[in-house]
Design brief:
The chain has helices at 2-11, 30-39, 41-46, 49-52, 57-86, 89-93, 97-107, 116-147, 149-163. It is mainly α and 169 residues long. The radius of gyration is 19 Å and the shape is globular. The two termini are 14 Å apart. The model has no long low-confidence stretch (mean pLDDT 83).
């Protein structure tokens, strides 16, 4: 749930719980790729590249996850860059971190302009850090709400007064 929140609110990605984005071959969802990469990020820092490239199942999964995430991000960068370049009203209204990064990168020239690979690296760090922070915050919030049913009910009533019963939040 935390990944869906941070991906949608922080990055403007159209992740859906019921239909997560997958690789073109349908082998791995982006959520699964991020989970594998987050669980194994230490390997990237400690294990030498020649060992990571050995045909071992664990390393194969990490490589597949990296490829899935990179493919997804390349597509998103191209789409968001086109949207920003078009100057459309929807692009101007976007205030998510990903759009701001793409917009700032489009305004740069020369050696200060980031490559797509550098943008992907920045997004991964922000997604990873944002996911962990959001997950812990949501866990703590839900635990506290469970301990205080009156406050939980007040929040529920407030949400219903804003969105009603007929609409999904």
């Amino acid at each position: 749930m935390a990944l869906l929140v941070i991906a949608r609110c922080g990055f403007g990605f159209a992740f859906k719980w019921s239909a997560p984005p997958t690789t073109p071959d349908g082998e791995m969802s982006v959520q699964e790729a991020l989970r594998i990469l987050a669980d194994s990020y230490v390997i990237g820092f400690i294990v030498p590249a020649w060992i990571r490239n050995l045909p071992l199942h664990g390393f194969d999964k990490i490589r597949q996850a990296l490829e899935a995430f990179s493919t997804f991000m390349e597509h998103e960068i191209v789409a968001r860059t086109e949207e920003v370049r078009s100057g459309s009203e929807s692009a101007e209204e976007r205030t998510d971190a990903f759009t701001m990064l793409v917009r700032a990168n489009e305004q740069e020239t020369g050696k200060l302009k980031l490559s797509n690979r550098e943008v992907i690296g920045n997004v991964f760090i922000l997604l990873f850090a944002g996911h962990e922070t959001t997950a812990h915050t949501l866990s703590a919030t839900l635990a506290l709400l469970a301990l205080h049913p009156k406050i939980q009910n007040d929040i529920f009533e407030n949400i219903i007064s804003v969105i009603g019963y007929d609409r999904d939040p």
